């Protein structure tokens, strides 16, 4: 059974996320469980989710889901903007709602990069290093 789309195709936040995520080496997009996901061999970012135990809650409908470095995750959890999403939260993922205030797109891109580095194969990470030298 396929899932219904859980996003608006003309969503301006989604358009910006799509642009950011697809700029990463080898990145592709697919719809999984009705939501956009960006991946190389594994997913590194998703758009939209749920708070654990509440499928009727729409607070994460327009959120970026990422997998930060485990050491950084604890710091991010101290920021009230970040939420542990259902399903992926126990595996280290966090959600940042993007529609509460104007997103800081540099911060969003840094979160995407960190998640990409947690999930992408070494060859893709080397490609990223070549594109974004430190």
UniProtKB/TrEMBL annotation:
Q: What SUPFAM superfamilies does the annotation carry?
A: YjbR-like
The reply on keyword Isomerase is no
Which Pfam family, an example, fits this chain?
Answer: YjbR
Which keywords are on file for this protein? DNA-binding
Q: Which domain of life is it from?
A: Bacteria
Could you give a GO molecular-function term held by this entry? Answer: DNA binding
Name of the protein this chain belongs to: MmcQ/YjbR family DNA-binding protein
Q: Which organism is it from?
A: Propioniciclava coleopterorum
